[in-house]
Amino acid sequence: MVGQIIGGNYGEILIRQKNGERIELGELLVADDILLQVVDLEYGSLMENRDLARMSGMQLEGYGATEIHEKEVRNFILVRAKPVFDLNKKGITKHLPEFFKILRRANAQDFDFLEKPENPMYLGKIRSGSKVLDVPVYLDGKKVLTHHILIPATTGRGKSNLVKVILWSLVNKDYAGILVLDAHNEYYSYKLNGKNYGLKEHPEAKGNVIYYSINPPLGERALKINIKLVRPWHLREIIEFTPAQEDALYLFYKEWGDEWIKMLFSNEPIKGVGETTRAVIQRKVKVALEIDMNDYGELYERGKIFSINEGESTIKDICTYLEEGKIVIVDTSSLSQNLEILISSMIMNEVFARYKRYKENGELDNKPVISVVIEEAPRVLGEGKSTIFGTIAREGRKFKIGIIAITQLSSVIPREILANLNTKIILGNEMSSERKAVISSAAQDLSKDDKMIASLDKGEAIVSSIFTKFAIPIQIERFEELVDKARKEKKPKTLKFFG
Ligand SMILES: Nc1ncnc2c1ncn2[C@@H]1O[C@H](COP(=O)(O)OP(=O)(O)OP(=O)(O)O)[C@@H](O)[C@H]1O
Fold first, then answer.
1. ipTM, 2 decimals?
2. Using a 6 Å cutoff on CB, does residue 193 contact ligand 1?
């Protein structure tokens, strides 16, 4: 027994906390088979404010404390809670628990109704306030990934940790291929306290986790992309062109196909493109692709990614790995933001084209869902951006393509796109404008959850999704602990010989 219902209405039930108990913000309580979540706490007293002030004055100013008889009866903590789920009906609550009903804390058995879905994607364990219940939370990865995920939080609340936990559970599943553009090179392999961590440590990583880098360790793949694979629409995502320049780009591509960049730098004239326009485009393309021309008029690479002769199959290979349900991590840590966007856009354009074709041919059902992890999502999903990622957010689900958008600034993503990101794994956020943007586009009514979200600690989250019956509070595990656990389980038992 932790309290008793003393009033309120459907949206907010008032509970008197039992003396000696400590109910927390976000805690899950049960009354009358209805699951309630604490949304606010305040002081309550049976005495008038003036009396309380007088008594406090006596005590503070040294006149001795006035004894309150039955103090625990007169003063109490008033808990505000919202009904979240009918445990009996296994659905949304439509009625109030009985007036004056005694409440208890929720326990693991209350969540027996949560089933492990066909294509499980592990997120964490149910959290009641700051207490963790031993109930794993899985979502159906296939559905959730095609309908996009948003991970909003301020810095340091555990966004990357969460993505690592999600990817870890997907390594040995072939229903999903995930592309990760890893700007901090923190997903594949890293050292902590002398031990190796990262997705590479997964017992089934071999063949299921593919790593590309411009500085690949021995045995890993080099990230090299041939300029023949670049298309005008890829460049549009990172370079601003005037309408005349854009027309010129398409004319080059129409005339010379794969060889258009090479020909752009040749002396071959093209009808409809002036010399000045051509020179400006040449300059922009040189900067974007880190290529240049030597004194003999030959193109050469200045950077490490775009190549004149190598890397013709890189984009195709990556797409094929994704189509096979693998996780592809591309280390973009030493690249500019523009190059990172360009590469991801090239890959996702190819994925989109392939999956569109599969849909037309009736082959899509046999293909895994493909999702792309985008950090600092407003770079490509922000207001006024016209990118492949916006297209995926709007139409991707028809083609089994999704995005996992990570951001500190949900408020600058257009509402229409935010509403399309149908699962939100909300981590802590102290900025009220950001909380508002997330709350107003969530799958469940989170209008009372503002304080709760503000108070979320590292790894604490709320999962609001069209695929969950209510907004589930979870505790995400520390990724390194998952890895350590897997290592322990993998270790063969040592045999003891006696005698
Ligand atoms: N669930 C968790 N449990 C315990 N510690 C965690 C958890 N999640 C993250 N941390 C710790 O918090 C720190 C920040 O985590 P992480 O890098 O994932 O945050 P972030 O939101 O991605 O930060 P940034 O925006 O700076 O990239 C790390 O030291 C990490 O180990």
1. 0.97
2. no
